[in-house]
Amino acid sequence: MKFPGQRKHKHYFPVDARDLRSKEVGLPSRPVRSHICGIAQTLVDIEAHVDDDLLARHQLVKGNSLLIDDAAANALYAELKQQGKIVEEHAGGTIGNTLHNFATLSDERAVLFAVMERQIEIGSYAYKYLSNTSSKVDVNQLQPVDGPIGRCFTLITPCGERSFAISKGAMDKLEPEAIKPELVASAGALVFASYLMRSGDGDNIDQAALRAMAVAHEAQVPVVLTLGTRFLIEQDPAFWQDFIQQHVTVLAMNEEEAEALTGESDPLKAAEIALQWCDLVLCTAGPEGLYMAGYCEESQLRETEHELRSGAIGEFNRYEFSRPMRRDACDTPVKVYSYIAPYLGGPVEILNTNGAGDGALAALLHDMAANRYHRINVPNSAKHAVSSLSYSSFSQICKYANRVSYEVLVQHSPRLSRGLPEREESLEEGYWDR
């Protein structure tokens, strides 16, 4: 596993050299690997340049997003292919993007629980999905289905207006039996999106997710939920508050979803409110930057060496050099917060806003998986004297997540094609990572 955050080479761990803070005499000759699991709706994004007549022929509304059935999607796709209108076809979906980016950053395995078409033709969108997914993403657990996977058409007319047509296909047909308990129980994290719990139409992907969550809880594997869209959350925020409290360890959201969930427009205050339902919060806030909130044992607190910040909470980043912990693992839990502004003030030109939050979450998952990797392979390290959720501090995770988000914003695809460039060490790296 690569060291989270792309430090200089001397800071990459893995455990092939002795940890001077460890009481162990020797280390494993072959380190135990680490992985994460994700439950996803298999979706392909299809972008095409079209005219208004095509929208009218397929009964699509310019500038709007409409759900269409399989027959309508097949007819639309066939015409776009025949006329050579398609510009891009690439793998998509919140969890699919997150798992791919995790695998690209960490060079470790990410297990994908999802469906895939039983018959795949060369050049088809199902083929494109698999072709554009990192080889480190384990697709051996995919459940075959007889229908198409999900398709999201982005249709751009000459005026620049974007219209959307979405066909869910068979992407919600995942059955509970497709979940492999042994893989979930040995994972560094289990991640899924809110869309899964509102599948409807007799599909069972929500039951598959609940089964995986039950296994994760039994094995003390962190359960990570990304909220996905404010429109879904604002329909029934009380349901999601209760759901998070029952099932979720780590919550990822943007500022709009945070407001829909908590009723609070300030991202920092919304993150604080969310801590009553979960143990760790990652909240991206667009051009404002991103926030983290969580818990740490009072005796393990480390004060920041950065400038103290005040907002909805005074001097909220005072202990941001601390590492996140589960609330129930703390004798005296203290709320800890961190914030970072956009990397380099944000890109000069934003090529893609789709997936920036997924990139930030992939960075957090990498750090969490690295923590499990190090704990298993160097169990007596002083770093694991207390049980933490992550390898790095709140502050360091913010920096890493921020950097990954930037990399997504400056490319057309929500999926990274490479790792991150080297960067300078931070104030705290010498403490945690030597």
UniProtKB/TrEMBL annotation:
Reply yes or no: does the keyword ATP-binding apply.
Answer: yes
From the record, give the transmembrane residue ranges: none
Which residues, if any, are the signal sequence?
none
Q: In which pathway does it act?
A: Purine metabolism; IMP biosynthesis via salvage pathway; IMP from inosine: step 1/1; Purine metabolism; GMP biosynthesis via salvage pathway
Query: Which positions does UniProt annotate for GMP binding?
Result: G93, T94, I95, G96, N97, R198
Catalysed reaction per UniProt? guanosine + ATP = GMP + ADP + H(+); inosine + ATP = IMP + ADP + H(+)
The UniProt record lists the Carbohydrate kinase PfkB domain at: 77-294
Q: What is a single Pfam family found in this protein's UniProt entry?
A: PfkB
Cofactor(s) recorded for this entry are:
Mg(2+)
One example of the protein's molecular function in GO is: inosine kinase activity
Q: Which UniProt keywords apply?
A: ATP-binding, Kinase, Magnesium, Nucleotide-binding, Purine salvage, Transferase
Which NCBIfam families does the annotation name? PRK15074.1
What is this protein's function?
Answer: Catalyzes the phosphorylation of guanosine and inosine to GMP and IMP, respectively.
**Entry similarity comment:** Belongs to the carbohydrate kinase PfkB family.
Q: What is this protein called?
A: Guanosine-inosine kinase
